[in-house]
C-alpha cells in the first residue's frame, strides 16, 4: 500500500529493455540522456535473461526491445527466444538500419511478435540529414521485408519542425509501404530533443494544419491503416498522464542496468534509481525509494493535491516538471493551473522567434562525441 491514500501497488505490465545506447543514427530528437556516453557498461546476456524472468514473474506481459539501436546486440535472438518462452509479447523498436532478410527471419524464428520501424522523413535528403546516415532506401526496404515476413507493419515517424510540413507525404509513404499502423509521434522534449527545442518545436499553426491532415487520412484509411497522432503536450492545457502514473505500469531498464520508472528518470537529480545488478526486480518495484517516490497522491503539492483531475493525469510528467521548474514534485507546467505555465509559453515563444528569424540554429546531433563534450 502506498501513502495515506492506500493505493495498492499494481504489477509492472510493460517492460522496456534499452539494450544499448550505441546507435548508428544520430537523430537530434533522441530521448536518450544527453550524457549517454558515460553509461557504456552494458548488461550482459545473462543479466538480461534474469531481468526478463523476474519482471515476467511480477506480471509484465509486454516487452519492448529498444536502445539506442537494439540490433547492435548480437545476442538479440537469444533474448527474444527467452522472452517468448516466458510468454511476453515481444516488440522490437528499431531504426531498421542494416536489418537484412536473414536477420528478420531469424528473429521471427526466435519468436519476435512485432517490429516497429522508424523513418525520419518521406524523402531521402531530409531523412539522411536527420538520421546522420545514408539510410532512406534501406529503411523502406526493411519496411517491405517486415511486411513480407508476416509481421504487422508498424511505421513510426517522429514529428517536428523539420518534417511537419511534409505530413501529407509522410502519410502517402505509409500507404505506399502498406503500413498497418502509423505512429505520428510529435516530439516529446526530453534529452536531445530538449537541447534542440528551439529548432524542433513547430508553431501552433503548423500543429493544427498537420493534425487536420492526419485526421483526414484517418477517415479515408479507416479499416486499412490505423493512424495514431500523438498529441504535442506543449499546446495542450492539461498534462499527459505520463507513464500512466509513476510506478503503476512501466518499468524501463537502461543499458547499464539502471531501473527507471520512466525512460527519462535517469536525469532526475537525487532520485537515486536502483540497479538490477544490485537488487531484484521485485525489490526495485515494491521497495525502492525511486519507484515509490511519486506513487499515489501524497507527494503532490498544490494545485495538484486538491485538483479533482489528479486521478486522471497524476499531476502530469515528473521529468517535464523538473526541466521547467527545477522541482520534480511540482505540477507539470503544461497544466494551465500550474503557477509555472508561463515557462511553457516562453518556450513556445522562443521556438517561434527562432523560426521567424529564418536563421536556423544548428542542430546538435546525438552522437558519442557530442555526448562526451556536453557531459564533461
Ligand atoms: Fe519521466 Fe514523464 S518522462 S515522468
Describe this structure in words.
The chain has helices at residues 45-58, 76-86, 101-110, 124-131, 136-148, 167-176, 191-195, 197-200, 204-220, 281-287, 289-292, 310-313, 318-325, 341-356, 368-375; strands at 14-18, 62-66, 89-94, 114-118, 153-159, 181-186, 226-230, 250-253, 259-260. It has a nine-stranded mixed β-sheet, covered by helices on one side. The chain contains 15 helices and nine strands. The model has no long low-confidence stretch (mean pLDDT 95). Helix 1 runs parallel beside helix 2. The protein is an alpha/beta fold and 376 residues long. It is globular. FE2/S2 (inorganic) cluster is lined by residues 242-243, 262, 264-265, 317-319. Its EC number is 1.21.98.4.
What would a concise description of this structure say?
The protein has 376 residues and is an alpha/beta fold. Helix content is 37%, strand content 12%.
Question: How is the topology of this model organized?
Answer:
Elements: E1 14-18, H1 45-58, E2 62-66, H2 76-86, E3 89-94, H3 101-110, E4 114-118, H4 124-131, H5 136-148, E5 153-159, H6 167-176, E6 181-186, H7 191-195, H8 197-200, H9 204-220, E7 226-230, E8 250-253, E9 259-260, H10 281-287, H11 289-292, H12 310-313, H13 318-325, H14 341-356, H15 368-375
Parallel strand pairs: 1-2, 1-8, 2-3, 3-4, 4-5, 5-6, 6-7
Antiparallel strand pairs: 8-9
Enzyme class: oxidoreductase
Domain Radical SAM core: 9-224
Keywords: 4Fe-4S, Iron, Iron-sulfur, Metal-binding, Oxidoreductase, PQQ biosynthesis, S-adenosyl-L-methionine
Amino acid at each position: 500500500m502506498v501513502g495515506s491514500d492506500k493505493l495498492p501497488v499494481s504489477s509492472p505490465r510493460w517492460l522496456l529493455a534499452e539494450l544499448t545506447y550505441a546507435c548508428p543514427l544520430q537523430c537530434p530528437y533522441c530521448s536518450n540522456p544527453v550524457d549517454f556516453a558515460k553509461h557504456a557498461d552494458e548488461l550482459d546476456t545473462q543479466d538480461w535473461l534474469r531481468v526478463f524472468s523476474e519482471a515476467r514473474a511480477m506480471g509484465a506481459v509486454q516487452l519492448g526491445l529498444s536502445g539506442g539501436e537494439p540490433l547492435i546486440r548480437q545476442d538479440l535472438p537469444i533474448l527474444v527466444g527467452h522472452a517468448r518462452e516466458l510468454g511476453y509479447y515481444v516488440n522490437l523498436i528499431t531504426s531498421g538500419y542494416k536489418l537484412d532478410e536473414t536477420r528478420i527471419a531469424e528473429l521471427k524464428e526466435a519468436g519476435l511478435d512485432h517490429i516497429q520501424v522508424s523513418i525520419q522523413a518521406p524523402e531521402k535528403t531530409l531523412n539522411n540529414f536527420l538520421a546522420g546516415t545514408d539510410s532512406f532506401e534501406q529503411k523502406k526496404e526493411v519496411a517491405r521485408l517486415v511486411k513480407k515476413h508476416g509481421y504487422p507493419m508498424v511505421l513510426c515517424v517522429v514529428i517536428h519542425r523539420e518534417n511537419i510540413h511534409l505530413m501529407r507525404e509522410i502519410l502517402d509513404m505509409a500507404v505506399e509501404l502498406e503500413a498497418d499502423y502509423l505512429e505520428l509521434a510529435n516530439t516529446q522534449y526530453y534529452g536531445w530533443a530538449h537541447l534542440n527545442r528551439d529548432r524542433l518545436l513547430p508553431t501552433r499553426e503548423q500543429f493544427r494544419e498537420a493534425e487536420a491532415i492526419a485526421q483526414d487520412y484517418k477517415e479515408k484509411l479507416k479499416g486499412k491503416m490505423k493512424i495514431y497522432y500523438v498529441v504535442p503536450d506543449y499546446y495542450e492545457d492539461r498534462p499527459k498522464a505520463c507513464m500512466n502514473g509513476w510506478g503503476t505500469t512501466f518499468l524501463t531498464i537502461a543499458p547499464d542496468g539502471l531501473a527507471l520508472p520512466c525512460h527519462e528518470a535517469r536525469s532526475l537529480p537525487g532520485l537515486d534509481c536502483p540497479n538490477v545488478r544490485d537488487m531484484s526486480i521485485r525489490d526495485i518495484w515494491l521497495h525502492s525509494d525511486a519507484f515509490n517516490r511519486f506513487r499515489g497522491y501524497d507527494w503532490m503539492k498544490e494545485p495538484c493535491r486538491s485538483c479533482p483531475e489528479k486521478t486522471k493525469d497524476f499531476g502530469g510528467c515528473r521529468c517535464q516538471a523538473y526541466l521547467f521548474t527545477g522541482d520534480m514534485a511540482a505540477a507539470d507546467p503544461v497544466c494551465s493551473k500550474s503557477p509555472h505555465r508561463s515557462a511553457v509559453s516562453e518556450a513556445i515563444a522562443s521556438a517561434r522567434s527562432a523560426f521567424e528569424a529564418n536563421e536556423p540554429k544548428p542542430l546538435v546531433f546525438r552522437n558519442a562525441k557530442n555526448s562526451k563534450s556536453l557531459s564533461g
